[in-house]
Amino acid sequence: MQLVLQNLVNGILSGGILALVALGFSLVYGIMNIINLAHGAFLMLGAYITWQLWSTFGLDPILAVPIAFVVLFAFGYGIQRGVINRVVRAPVLATFLLTFALSLLIETTALFVWTGDTRGVQTAYTGANFTLLGVTVPWAKLLTLVVALAITGILYLWLHRSRLGRAIRATSMDVGAAQMVGVRVAHVYGITYALGAGLAAAAGALLTLSYPLTPTMGDPFLIKGFVVCVLGGLGSVEGALVGGLVYGIVSSFATQFDVTIAGQHLSGTGLQDVLALVVLLVVLIVRPTGLVGRATA
Amino acid sequence: MVAVPKPRRGAITGKRWVFLVSLGLMAGLLFVPAGHSDYLNLTFRNILMYAAMSYGWNLIGGYTGYISFGNVAFFGIGAYCSAVLSKAGVDNLFADVGLALIVNALFAVAVGLPILRLRGHYFGIATLGVALGLTDLASNLDFLGGSGGASIKQIGEAHFTTYYYAMWAVTLACMIATFFIARSKLGYAFVAIRENEEAAQVLGISPTRYKVTAWAIGAMMGGAAGAVFGAANGFIDPPTAFAVDNNVFPIAMAILGGMGTASGPFIGALLLSGANELLQQHFLKLHALFFGGIIVLMILFLPRGLMYLVGLRGGMRRWLSDLAVFRV
Q: Which among A104, A209, B223, B274 could disulfide-bond with B78, CB atoms 3.0 to 4.6 Å apart, if both were Cys?
């Protein structure tokens, strides 16, 4: 029972941040039909901005989250308006490769600026944890989860209540109709991509609390974000949240997996992601539009 | 009965003269080992390897219109086939390639039947899942060497040349196979599915059967390249077998050369891999920046690939107006 509870808590803690990583990716994917391979690079930039602020001014990573968000928001808007919008209507592969090349450019530049050395952020609460009902909870991860959920909640409200948020959702439903009622699609695309980049940066800033920094740190998160947003259902906040939590919990319980088949020992710790991917495949085959996805035309 | 217009010549294999030029270039590549340089052999063997993988992707992604992000899985399986055979004491390239063909065909059919029911992005992510899952699985299976990898016995002293010719033969086979498949009933069925799956079904084309066929033949192409690579490299571990570059480069090459054509992958591989190699040689640290820049420019100005330029009528003005369609 203790073990089940501990795994559940671990899963939720890591699932929350995965949901935030997937959120920006999912918005860009669902609304503009762009598989944004630069998402991991944006996450890495957010993490390095946070690290730089911490090492130069001693700023706490949590306080750096909004700064990282704003910087990458502006950067993302510029990239979308200046580069990606030129080919945004091209087949999905064109933007796929374009964002791959952008991530190559960003990661190489980061390698020059910050070198390939592994960096880390130390705070007063790094490594500290508390125990509740026999379950150990690290403060840093709990804080990360709380901030990630708060950002997710704010985004949900903004998308549903604000004028621009509604314009974004309208564009994702029908570009032509949105244009006809006066939505400036190029601007909406710019804002959506900027949001994606900003959310990636916020996730990167939070990840500095528990992960080491390298210029390629974003790559595994890019892939997990990809899986999570399809698992939950593309282009929706709820989808990213559900997908992230499911992924986190499945891979957490997967660590308990331990079998020996024909002399071949298989331990769950190395197969966490395999099992999460098996769940993904099963979900896709049974529910092709994701766990909370709706049927699309 | 409505008369069916005869398809435009070269509509699905690309211009015939371009294919002949490609064949000529392939013949020229036969003389690379005459330079007696291991470096040249290795460089051009890599170009050929990427071309073969790109052909494999082209069948499912280019012709059938199912964009796969996991074709590196077949390359990896092929490479591991060589490793398993070498461990069993068999060091023969024909056996390596033969086993890779069989295993990949079976694996592709087994995996393809469920996931080829998915469309668009969902198919793409499922294929990525398969490739990632295999990477982790290979790292955890002891008989494949686990994360430490497995070594493969090299043959003979002139092995660089032998492996070079083997890769050349694999690539030529992929090229010619693509040409003939595209001009057969099979290829027309692939293109019909790409253009409109429902309409194809109405015409009596079983989408599942043809999709799985395209996927499996593509898998065999990637697998053959992997088998030769494994043997030539002499060592294989999960990051090498399932490298991200091996997943993205073949797609980039097919797009640059021209998706759904019989010479596109080869020309794309020659240009992109060649450029990468030259940049790496001259700008050790900056080459990734240049390489990224080249891809950005290519997508901005040639999103339809080089074959589009070959068929372009109307010059610069037409080119710019065709580009403007993609703007928002």
A: B223
Please indicate, yes or no, if residue A140 is contained in any of the structural domains: yes
pLDDT tens digits for range A239-261 = 889 899 988 988 888 877 777 77
Q: Residue B99: which domain range?
A: 16-301
Q: How many domains does chain B have?
A: 1
A260-290 pLDDT, tens digit per residue, is 776 666 666 667 777 777 877 788 778 777 6
Touching check for B110 and chain A: CB below 8 Å? no
pLDDT tens per residue, range B249-271: 899 899 888 888 899 999 999 99
CATH label of the domain that carries residue A118: 1.10.3470
Tokens of residue A253, six digits: 């319980």
Residue A291 resides in a domain = no
Chain A residues lying within 8 Å of B66, measured CB to CB: none
Q: What domain count does chain A have?
A: 1
Range of the domain at A271: 2-286
Whichever domain contains B175, its CATH number is 1.10.3470
Q: Is residue B324 part of a domain?
A: no
| Chain B residues 125-184 within an 8 A CB cutoff of chain A | 125-126, 128-130, 132-133, 136-137, 139-143
Tell which B residues from 299 to 318 touch A, by Cβ distance under 8 Å. 299-300, 303
